[in-house]
Description:
By secondary structure, this protein is of the alpha+beta class. It has 13 helices and 18 strands.
Amino acid sequence: MSDPLQYFQSHETDYLKKLKHLVAIPSVSFPGFEQKVVGECGNEVKKLFTEVGLENIQTFPGGHPERPYIYGEWLKAPGRPTVLMYGHYDVQPPGNLDKWQSPPFELTEKNGRLFARGSADDKGGLIANLAAIDSILKSVGSLPVNVKILAEGEEECGSGGLDNFVAKNKSLIQADVIIITDADNYDEQTAGLTVSLRGLISMSVEVQALKQPVHSGLLGGPLPDSAMALSKILATLVDDSGEISIPEIREMVVPLSADDRQELSSLPFDEHKFRDESGILPETKLRCSAGEILEHLWFKPSFSINCFQASSQAQAGNVVVASAWARIGLRTVPNIDNEKAKQLLQEHIERQTAFGLKAKVSNVSVGTWWKTKTDHPAFKQMEAALAKGWGRASVKIGCGGSIPFVQTFTDALGGAPALLIGVCDPKTFAHSENESMSIEVWRKSVRSLIHFLSSF
Length: 456
Ligand code: BES
Ligand code: ZN
């Protein structure tokens, strides 16, 4: 068989079996989860690289020794361009197990979707890259381009080892173009080529007033309440509409350009579909009008309290809690200076007092936003490949999520274009319970990658 698309079609189930195998390894990279398991998943990825026939397969330490980078290459097309492909094999924690309709680490098919943690973000993306390379190699026997492929094991916890890895291995990863298969599609029928990402500033904030929780009847009154104090402090971060209230951060946000506005308004948008896909309850109002949703998602900062903990639901006795802890995140956009915004945010929090209590900030992380020009010919070629793979024109999209190292890669590769595609769609629910990947979206993504690699 010499047609890679046909080869892919007849071996699709084999590739999905590999996905099932990877998904079964709960490679949660968050601190507090067993990091050894992430390393085990890395080993399986290494085996998959070998099965595809990649060469010079190597592992490099990540920010944690059990979260290695796995590298492989196929460089037998001298004089032809080199493509660096990226995916990550670590996943988010599963969240609330009771909310999963099938076990989080067991790939389960339902209505054309494959449910499991990491099915789409990003084990499905990683397998898509491998399936495309494998289908060409096993059918044609060789690739028309050189390929380097990198799998990361610590993307979901901030890519702590990436700067070091890139700095040490600059020549190993040199390429003419980067394909990052870790992003979204506009919908199940329309491929997205992501041209902007938001950044992310995260920090933990804690207020502690007491040594231990005490009886709220016997001692409540004279004692300041830590949970209330933290609530008050966090509430100062946004105005009544939920917009970040720190003026210096607001002022750094650039208004949408006429071109961006034009791109946004050309995208078909259905508010009801958005409400349905976002999981918002029928009685909950959106914070903006339907016409502003995409702008808010892609080009405006947004502030979230990711976790607020003062006691546990199961043990919510009549107590004055001793302390309260929150993890907060600010999604940033052009042209917010992330380091400056981090400083402003931290200083603002540390300045506040509530009932005389102050909050301590720790574990601060900063990931930058990214926005690319699209005049390099690789963008047109990817658009052509997506059109062939999906049987329909793709759209350029922004993404509200963050992949902070895209800029690190392009810088290390002397400004090489980064093409962000992926196997997620609005029904994926990445990071949430019941994450899933549409088999058809995955299929179309693999086909597009085959077209791209065959024609770049
Ligand atoms: N792949 C996601 C980002 C994403 C999700 C893009 C869904 C498009 C659709 C990525 O793995 C991710 O979640 N990134 C983190 C970055 C953080 C850990 C610095 C994020 O956005 O929270
Ligand atoms: Zn991801």
